[in-house]
Design goal:
24% helix, single chain, 665 residues, five-stranded mixed beta sheet, Phenylalanyl-tRNA Synthetase, Chain B, domain 1, 25% strand, Phenylalanyl-tRNA Synthetase, Chain B, domain 3, alpha+beta, 31 strands
Length: 665
């Protein structure tokens, strides 16, 4: 997730030291993977205003403009189609440096001297738009450095969130955490309800309330088609990694990023009858916004009207009800879907969206009304229009209820290993939005907030106290536990000892996924049943491995494709075997060798490895389990010997005693 500090600062006072701020977030469980500036370096670009604009005398597509920076007026030749008198736009004066090493100089264009340049978003590194020059808000002061006017020295954090923290996939969610970390209050950000100026509402029916328990809808009519999205909103979306697609789409994305509530906008004129939230029916299909037509399964939740499905709930809307350039009337949706009803469906269809990522992790069931009021406020402010009443349809018995949890002081001390000051525990929990409803000598009774789906048991509360109190404040101490010696059978050899033997013989240890490609596994083990994953991370990692060979052979192939002439790999890990529907996990050692028998060297003639080289390596591993005898470390003692499968008599003994021995130690 990408979040910029300028947006966050609207919600909470931030530490100006961005390095310390990133470290604090990481220690609280939100790993900051990277930091970046909101814009690439450029200099001497200011807010300019076009005072006059006329056609170039010798070029039909060029304009000659008089542009002021507040103190001086410059003649500038511009080829943008949207240049006009009264427009405020970035002005790069002579000597300015732009991204990509471009320096602005005086130049003659078709006989007219141009003293500067009016810049597009692409030329400043602020987006991909290059059709026209960047249009700035009319309230910006002429002559202000552009970096200052647009807050371009802002910092963007790229944060890696754990799957249980869906509540932090928003500016509001991270601001809550930063307020607790910095011991500063969250700024008041109230959203006033927008009064209804029309009576139009679309009725909604919840036909699968266990999957979709709440739906908030609102009709807005009379929006101004073609209204531009404000620059501040486009910039914040850009810094979050999103493209601007027009105000109707931008507002729903903006609210999702700000409050964490996914939303959707339907073209009102394309809806018929009552809107239903239901499971898909047999034979139904849906063409998604991206143009892909999918066959709906019975376990997929859909939004439908009288004609059929208009959206895949929590994932993506349908093409039939999509917003068009001439849309003036919309139906806004802000809903709550159960995470289990959304999880895996998008991945099954290869359709992963920002909305599905949030619904899969859990969305605050109390935030839908706030989100739709915020979206209405923004949309009407941008494109005008009249809002109808907000219609809330919900099934309360199917909405999640946050039950109180008891946190025992003894349990807290045992898990953390130290005594946290008693006053700090309720302070931390209350700051995290978990009111302590009762406190006794034994512990505390805590009620998790609606937005924290991951707080379900006492251990979760311990983790919250520990991460906010500070892992660095918890000293390293030895745990006081009873000593219970375990059995060490003589027949069991430590994996490290076996690995050491193979490393000494030139092998490299490989660590592969326990998930493998089903096609490769079928080629190697056509008659061996394997456990298929219900929700694989990719089609190539869809089965549990029944052997270590699929992963090793894939690694061998990758090395061979990179012209490695000698590959020797081994792995020690578990394989998963189905025996009469019972899954057994078996620790295994496997290896592969390919290419030259020896590394390239002066002391020996190069030759390809063969069966006997691999056999010698295997014997060296087996010898690691043999008792020590006079014959030397690792050699079999006197008594029964393993069969000698060497190519000719005496070869094995010669290899043992010859200089540069490569078979047995």
């Amino acid at each position: 997730m990408k979040v910029n500090l300028e947006w966050l600062s609207e919600w909470v006072d931030l530490n100006p030291d961005v390095v310390a701020l990133g470290d604090a977030l990481t220690m609280a469980g939100f790993e900051v993977e990277g930091r970046a500036q909101a814009a690439p370096p450029f200099s001497d670009v200011v807010v300019g205003e076009v005072k006059e604009c006329g056609r170039h005398p010798d070029a039909e597509r060029l304009s000659v403009c008089q542009v002021t920076d507040g103190t001086e007026t410059f003649t500038i030749v511009c080829g943008a189609s949207n240049v006009r008198a009264g427009l405020k736009t970035p002005l790069a004066r002579v000597g300015a440096s732009l991204p990509g090493g471009v320096t602005i100089k005086r130049a003659k264009l078709r006989g007219v001297e141009s003293a500067g340049m009016l810049c597009s978003a692409r030329e400043l590194g602020l987006g991909d738009e290059a059709e026209g020059i960047l249009e700035l808000p009319a309230d910006l002061k002429v002559g202000t450095p552009l970096r200052e006017a647009l807050l371009l020295d802002d910092t963007i954090f790229e944060i890696n969130l754990t799957p249980n923290r869906g509540d932090a996939l928003s500016v509001l969610g991270l601001a809550r955490e930063l307020a607790v970390i910095g011991k500063t209050p969250l700024k008041a950000r109230t959203v006033a309800p927008v009064a209804a100026r029309s009576a139009e509402a679309i009725p909604v029916r919840l036909l699968a309330p266990a999957a979709g328990a709440k739906f908030v809808g609102r009709v807005i009519r009379g929006l101004r088609a073609g209204a531009p999205t404000p620059l501040y909103m486009r910039e914040r979306l850009r810094r979050a990694g999103m493209r601007s697609l027009g105000p109707l789409i931008d507002v729903t994305n903006y609210v999702m990023l700000e409050l964490g509530q996914p939303m959707h906008a339907y073209d009102r004129r394309r809806l018929e009858g009552t809107v239903e939230v239901r499971l898909a029916r047999a034979g139904e299909t849906l063409t998604l916004l991206e143009g892909t037509t999918i066959e709906l399964a019975p376990d997929m939740l859909v939004i439908a009207d009288a004609k059929g499905p208009i959206g895949l709930a929590g994932i993506m809307g349908g093409e039939r009800s999509a917003i068009a350039p001439d849309t003036t009337d919309v139906f806004l949706e802000s809903a709550w879907f159960h995470p289990d009803a959304i999880a895996g469906r998008g991945r099954r269809l290869d359709v992963i969206t920002d909305a599905s990522q949030r619904f899969e992790r859990g969305v605050d069931p109390a935030g839908q009304e706030r989100a739709i009021e915020r979206a209405t406020e923004l949309l009407i402010g941008i494109a005008g229009g009249e809002a109808g009443p907000t219609l809330v349809t919900e099934s309360r018995p199917h909405l999640p209820v946050r039950s109180p949890i008891t946190l025992r002081k003894s349990y807290l001390a045992r898990l953390i290993g130290i005594e946290v000051p008693e006053r700090r525990v309720p302070e931390i929990l209350t700051a995290l939005g978990m009111p302590v409803t009762a406190a006794t000598a034994a512990g505390f009774t805590v009620t998790p907030p609606t937005w924290r789906f991951d707080i379900t048991q006492e251990a979760d509360l311990v983790e919250e106290v520990a991460r906010i109190y500070g892992y660095n404040e918890i000293p390293e101490i030895d745990a006081l536990v009873a000593q219970r010696p375990g059995a060490v059978p003589e027949g069991r050899i430590e994996a490290a000892r076996l690995a050491g033997r193979l490393v000494d013989r030139g092998y490299f240890e490989a660590i592969n996924y326990t998930f493998v490609d089903p096609a490769l596994e079928r080629r190697l083990f056509p008659d061996t049943p394997a456990l298929a994953l219900a929700n694989p991370i990719s089609a190539e990692l869809a089965e549990m491995r029944v052997s270590l060979w699929p992963g090793l052979l894939a690694a061998l192939g990758a090395n061979a494709r990179r012209q490695q002439g000698r590959v020797r790999l081994f792995e020690i890990g578990a394989k998963f075997v189905l025996q009469d529907t019972v899954l057994k996990e078996i620790n295994t050692l496997a290896g592969v060798t390919w290419g030259d028998a020896l590394p390239e060297q002066w002391g020996a003639k190069g030759r390809g490895g063969d069966f006997y080289d691999a056999k010698a390596d295997l014997e060296a591993v087996l010898a690691a389990s043999a008792p020590l005898a006079g014959g030397g470390p690792g050699l079999p003692a006197s008594g029964p010997q393993r069969p000698n499968l060497s190519r000719r008599s005496g070869l094995r003994q010669a290899r043992r005693t010859a200089p540069g021995n490569r078979a047995e130690p």
